[in-house]
Amino acid sequence: MTIDLNPRFTFEAFVVGPNNRLAATACRTVSDHPGTSYNPLFIYSQTGLGKTHLLMAIGQRVQELNPGAVVEYLTLDEFVEAYHAAVSAGSPEEFHVRFGNAAVVLLDDVQFLSHSKEMQNELIRMAAEFQEAELQLVLTSDRPPADIEELDERLLTQLDGGLVVDIGTPEFETRLAILQRRAEEGGAEFSPDVLAAIAELDVQHVRALLGVFNRLQAFQSVNDQPLTAEQARALVLGEEPVAEAAAAAPEQEAEGEAPDEFSEFLHGLEVTVTQQVEGWKAVIEQAIAEWSERGYDTGLLQALLEQGVPGGTEAAVRAFERKIERLRGLEAEIAVIDPEAARQPVFKSPDRIDEAEKMVRAAREKFVPLPRPSDAFALESFQMGEATRMALEAGRAVITQPGTRYNPLMLVGPSGVGKTHLLHSIGRLLNAEAGGGVACLAAETFVEELVSAIEQDALPAWRARYRHASAFLLDDVHQIGARAQTQEELFNLFNLFADAGRQMVFTANVLPQDMEGLDDRLKSRFVGGLVATIEPPDKELRRAIVRTHLENRLGSAEADVVNYLAERATDSVRSLLSVIQRAVAGAEAMGGALTLGGARRLLEEQAKKETRVSSSGGQGGAVINPPGVLRSQEKFVWDWPNAVDRVIEELS
Amino acid sequence: MSLVNFTTREITCKIVYYGPGRSGKTTNLQYVYDQVPAERRGRMVSLATQTDRTLFFDFLPLELGTISGFTTKFQLYTVPGQVYYNATRKLVLQGADGVVFVADSQARQLDENIASLQNLQANLLEQGIDVRTLPVVIQYNKQGLPPELVLPVEELDDAMNFRGVPSFGADALTGNGVFETLRAVSELVLRKLSEGQPA
């Protein structure tokens, strides 16, 4: 993957001088002929002299010459992390495959290898393999290999077998060329004297030199007048020239000369104002230099500078850095889903973070949409009663304060009491509030998806999809009791959501502590939020449910009918709804209102028929169960009131 | 009183020269006045008695021009050193951004210096200002007098500068140390102002 290559770091943008000529030439050579010239190539220098620039330039040049080539650029930390991830996932070979597929591996900052024997061994293995397969390995460090503590002799020998080259500090001419290049790139106009004056200063690091340049640029833009070489020098050196002047003043006076004390005073004030009053600018300029160096758009910070009024400078810079952190997270996420999209400039533009969020959301959706809560369930249609009060109130609290009030919320109750209804209702409202991103599914589906992801070797993407959900709702969680891998995934997901303060809701038919086969670590987490039970509906609740449904379907509900129907099914809401459904359907079929007598006939006669079906079937063995397979009872001959009449009726 | 206005890009600050009578406060201002080009200085207002002792106060406005993009104005004041003009001293101290305490380096004046320093602290406290939070520098003036008459800077520091503020030996008549002192207090004031920028 080349997602981290900064497009600004090319060979064309690298100023070559005597201090870095050898390194630059070696880098060009390996990028033109990877794997065959200097392998491995080891570059070392102090910080800020262009190692990373050269490393990325190699990557970009290789890709330019061979667009299909895989280039891996990463810091040692990322390299170690990738190795640990592969090992902890039980597939270290994935690590080898990943880097074995790369034409060029660029490894930055390897000086931290000191105390990692394990990674040194990996590098030794990799260097040997790369040499054999003519794949290019390039490493950078802030010190020569021999100075890296506890570096394995075998690795030292391998590095010596390639090319070890250093980058020195730039001389005056190189510094001047760098400044001129920067001025051209940034469209800044400085007199040659100014750039020469700055180049003459002993600024050792290119990064520091560019920081100085940015400062001068900002100063000039504020003053709307060309900067003189003397001003530039004073700005960079701070108080030094003034201190020298002050020290010299008494001597001059002793000699009877009349120094222009007022001018010296003004000059000193100018330095003080620049350093103290305009100190906030230095903070922003430093941040601009740092982040633009890393390829990020610093327009937001530039705007602050141009505004010219300090207002919470530190806070503004911190907010900017938080946005970059978020962008990095988004970039990392989309890199898993869609590596090409990760290269979009929007992921380097903190002022376009909303756009980046949308892109990632769209990519998630495009990849595999999250299972959404069903629209068939509305919170308004969930009846409040003593049996449901606690669960309903808890659900409402979760909707208004997701992630903070009850997390997780565990809804427990027997089958058919409305757990799924409430779960999806909560999910819908959370989804509306968060603008999408809520995952709501049955545990069974969760298990199936996981199995499928493992089969398709798509586990990281599957995990990424759920890890970025804004809330996670899982129905019938007791069903994962015997699924060890699912429990492991759920455990990790749970911790991530809990840490991020994102809401989780679960349903189960038993209390967490009674779930068979469930890890104790999950049980303890489930009970750590709120366990709200939903009891079978009591009489009042059943009446309310019947009344509501009759009124909705028939427009009215007679009290005696309501009482009658409410007593017909007492174990669950689901069975009660079934009774209501049958009664309403019967009434509608007869084209009249539902009366107590009508309801009795419909339900009790049907019950008798069902009993007969059941008993006859048992004797004759002719009934096919379940009834759902043959839905119409009329297809059974014993259901006809009079077989002869029926035949006549059909014949006529 | 003090102001760094980033919108209009103006800096205005008030610096008060404090100290016992005849320590050389007005001489400091006169030297500054003489060094400033005519177009940059306002009229120096000096309300003095017939014996040339400051009765009320001196006031020297300085238009320092554009410094790093800011139109900068300094207002230099002196207070009457005599004990019985304390009311005037309090008045002048109001809204001060920084204080130059001008001490008389003569050994015989040490007690007066200390009394004036205590008076400064008391007057500031009365205005609710902790002297530790106000930019203050001490100038030991008259170091140009014969050595047998004056105390060296180190000794004066030991006796008076128990807070360790910046201190300077000076001879305001010749101008030695005058601008050094002014620059030091200006720096402290500007630093304080920048610390007070809105967050």
Describe it for me?
The complex is a heterodimer of chains A (652) and B (199). With 652 residues, chain A is an alpha/beta fold. Chain A contains 27 helices and 10 strands. A 5-stranded parallel sheet of chain A has the order 2-3-4-1-5, sandwiched between helices. In chain A, strands 7-8-9-6-10 form a 5-stranded parallel sheet, sandwiched between helices. In chain A, helix 13 packs antiparallel against helix 14 (299-307). The longest helix of chain A is centred in the middle third of the chain and has 25 residues, at 313-337. Chain A is elongated and about 110 Å long. The model of chain A is unreliable at 239-259 and 615-652 (pLDDT under 50). With 199 residues, chain B is of the alpha/beta class. Chain B has 5 helices and 8 strands; from the N terminus they run ββαβββαβαβαβα. In chain B, strands 1, 2, 3, 4, 5, 6, 7 and 8 form an 8-stranded mixed sheet that branches. Chain B is globular. Chain B starts with a strand and ends with a helix. Classes of the chains: A alpha/beta (652), B alpha/beta (199). The interface between A and B is medium-sized, with 31 and 33 residues.
In a nutshell, what does this entry contain?
The complex is a heterodimer of chains A (652) and B (199). Chain A has 652 residues and is α/β, with parallel strands linked by helices.
What general outline of chain A do the C-alpha atoms trace?
A: elongated
Shape of chain B: globular
Low-confidence stretches of chain B: none
Give the amount of beta strand of chain B, in percent: 25-35%
Counted by DSSP, the helix tally of chain B is: 5
User: What can be said about the biggest beta sheet of chain B?
Assistant: 8 strands, mixed
Oligomer: heterodimer
* Radius of gyration based on Cα positions of chain B: 16 Å
Derived structural class of chain B: alpha/beta
Number of DSSP strands of chain B?
8
Euclidean distance between termini CA atoms of chain A: 79 Å
Number of helices of chain A: 27
The largest sheet of chain A has its strands arranged as 2-3-4-1-5
State which percent range the strand residues of chain A make up. 5-15%
Mean pLDDT of chain B: 86
Order of helices and strands of chain B: EEHEEEHEHEHEH
**Gyration radius from CA atoms of chain A, angstroms:** 37 Å
- Relative helix content of chain B: 25-40%
* Average predicted local confidence, pLDDT of chain A: 79
* Largest interface: chains, residues each: A-B, 31 and 33 residues
The biggest sheet of chain A amounts to: 5 strands, parallel
